[in-house]
Amino acid sequence: MPIIAGNWKMHHDHLTAIQVVQKLGFRLEDSDYDRTEVVVCPAFTALRTVQTLIDSDKLRIELGAQNCHWEPQGAYTGEVSAPMLAKLNVDYVIVGHSERRQLFGETDETVNRKVKAVLGNGMTPIVCVGETLEEREAGETDDKVRGQTAAAFAGVKAEQVAACVIAYEPIWAIGTGRNATPEDADATIGTIRATVRERFDAPTADALRIQYGGSVKPGNIGELMAMPEIDGALVGGASLDPDDFARIVRFWE
Ligand code: PGA
Fold first, then answer.
1. The model scores a pTM over 0.90
2. Which of 5, 145, 203, 222 could join 39 in a cystine, given CB atoms 3.0 to 4.6 angstroms apart?
3. Within a domain: residue 253?
């Protein structure tokens, strides 16, 4: 099943989050959820509110967080742990988003620890990988995503990897309005899948879902989803508006 996830980043307080999720709930039909999984990833302060709304309105939207710490508890001022998220019925946790790697010092090693914490608490990581513009121009895209993929899943069991989600997000395409061509995105996602096949096995690589992310819009989602390797999308800016996000969810239209 494809998976379309909205990464709200540092947008929407808990009050606007209610309006956005209610509108999204009105716009989506049961038949839409039968064709694709729909995830929203609000800021920490809106998680509880969105979870309550999803439960009370029996919405089939799934809840995601944007980050977590790898330790279950402790003296880590300002951090939120995986067990805390699991208690809120969070299903997915974005791990290693390029903004966290570039702005908040996240490394392949911390990504790996977070992946294990998320899995260990019964949630699914959405592991972000992707190259910078300089790396792309130097022909280093494949090496970069291969390295990030291998590091993220080091020491993780194949059956757990099979249930994970990877988001391939070329950094130069995030928030720039400049998306990768469907062919380029498909080729790099194929490389990521090949890495999983080599490190684990073919059934694991086939089962794992790999999203594309970076300037996904209602106008380009159709051609991206038509590519054989692309199993979904991680959507930033265009997920903030429930009308746009609903159109992206219905990528087949
Ligand atoms: P964008 O962000 O859709 O605004 O480019 C994608 C992301 O960073 O997940």
1. yes
2. 5
3. no
